[in-house]
Fold this sequence. Notes:
10% of the residues lie in helices and 38% in strands. The protein is mainly β. It folds into 2 domains: 2-123, Beta-Lactamase; 133-166, no CATH class. The strands form 3 sheets. A 5-stranded mixed sheet has the order 2-3-4-5-6. Strand 3 and strand 4 form a beta hairpin. The protein starts with a strand and ends in a 28-residue tail after the last strand.
Amino acid sequence: MKFKRSDFLAAPKSSIPVDLEYCDPTGERFVNTPVQALPHCHIEGTLHFDGKSKVVSSLHYTGTMTVIDSITGEDLDVDFETDSRQEYSFDPLIEDDDEEEIIRVFKDVIDLTDEAEEAIAYEAPMSITHLAREEYPQGEGWTLISDQDVIPETKEEDPRWAKLKEFKFED
């Protein structure tokens, strides 16, 4: 997942095709993200070199990530598909507010690992479960609901607040 400046200088039409397999079965690269592991990910796309100092990556990711089920706490495999685009510069950058984020490359080596991990982590669902609504946990006097469940509105007044109606407040 590393490309040297010399690779771009030698590439025909200043473009390098990318076709890589990436995995992280232990999830050690995805600390502080919902991703627990990355058993499989295919990365394809191109790296375009402008002939001077800038490289633009256009990558497409497809694969499977392991996340934690929001209700049961079990591991759950989720398929994903996403794209990323990033600009890199071999030369020092001049501060300009109008420019997009450009990553400064040191030692003339572009490492696509950080770009890939960021794109994959953004695709991780914040909340997911494999349970059907009928299988949600419930107990005596309570039931787990979803934000998609329709909850009937009740106009029943809380008896703890009833005493406040006796007071006359000044405006």
